[in-house]
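Severity: low
Component: inverse-folding endpoint
Summary: output formatting inconsistent between runs
Steps to reproduce: submit the following structure tokens with default settings.
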């Protein structure tokens, strides 16, 4: 999703009962705290890292996680929300340039700054690990909006929570008539990411998914669409103070807070002053 809306989504987690705790390290060493935390979650077919998009520490952790798994030969693939399905780096050599990698992934710099996500992507490429786009292609979104079968992918309670998240994620500016269609897009995106994981998995290795925290929510997101034979662990990262605990993540890693910003402010119509 565009980064403006994604950043706004970090405040939605309380709406769906998400847990917000967290921990971070900056050293790429396999002895670093991130590597130890990753080891504690192994073995698993899929590891999902849910980030707050405007927290730079989270992208550091993502790179460290790639390095930790790759160093032990455990990383099957790096799947990312930041590129669409059908884009992958598997045909590139380990010494591919950043421009080659960005071309292979059809990178959208306006939505996802390469400076933030490039280090994790290039760490995978340099380790000989494929990076695969996991997001629903934009050209499929219109079909998803009209696909009533997507309504049955979640329970009524989870679907209602997802609709609340969609409202808040669009700054409560969407017409109510658009809530159900936009919720279907969110469900379709989660299902696409799950399908990407299934296609990329390899025996004895782990597919790492990097996405916004909303997609990794066990009750609403990608885990809901994974087959029962895929073992999965979910980590949520969050900047700032903890906001409670629930069972919809397997681990919570806290990071330092980031400055609060109202990303919806510039989208709201100006308030007219009385003359």
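Observed output (run 2 of 3):
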């Amino acid at each position: 999703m565009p980064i403006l809306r994604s950043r706004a989504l970090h405040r939605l987690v309380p709406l769906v009962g998400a847990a917000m705790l967290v921990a971070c390290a900056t050293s790429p060493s396999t002895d670093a705290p991130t590597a130890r935390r990753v080891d504690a979650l192994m073995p698993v077919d899929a590891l999902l890292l849910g980030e707050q998009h405007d927290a730079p520490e989270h992208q550091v952790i993502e790179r460290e996680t790639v390095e930790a798994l790759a160093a032990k030969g455990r990383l099957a693939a790096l799947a990312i929300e930041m590129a669409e399905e059908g884009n992958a780096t598997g045909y590139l050599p380990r010494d591919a340039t950043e421009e080659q990698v960005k071309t292979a992934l059809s990178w959208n710099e306006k939505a996802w700054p390469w400076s933030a996500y490039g280090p994790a992507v290039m760490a995978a490429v340099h380790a000989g690990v494929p990076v695969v786009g996991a997001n629903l292609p934009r050209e499929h979104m219109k079909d998803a909006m009209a696909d009533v079968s997507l309504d049955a992918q979640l329970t009524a309670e989870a679907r209602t929570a997802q609709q609340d998240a969609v409202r808040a994620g669009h700054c409560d500016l969407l017409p109510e008539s658009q809530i159900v269609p936009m919720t279907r897009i969110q469900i379709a995106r989660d299902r696409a990411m799950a399908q990407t994981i299934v296609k990329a998995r390899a025996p004895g290795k782990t597919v790492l998914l990097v996405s916004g925290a909303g997609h990794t929510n066990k009750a609403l997101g990608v885990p809901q669409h994974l087959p029962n034979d895929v073992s999965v662990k979910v980590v949520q990262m969050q900047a700032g103070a903890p906001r409670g605990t629930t069972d919809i993540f397997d681990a919570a890693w806290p990071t330092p807070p980031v400055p609060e910003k109202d990303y919806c402010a510039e989208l709201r119509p100006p308030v007219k002053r009385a003359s």
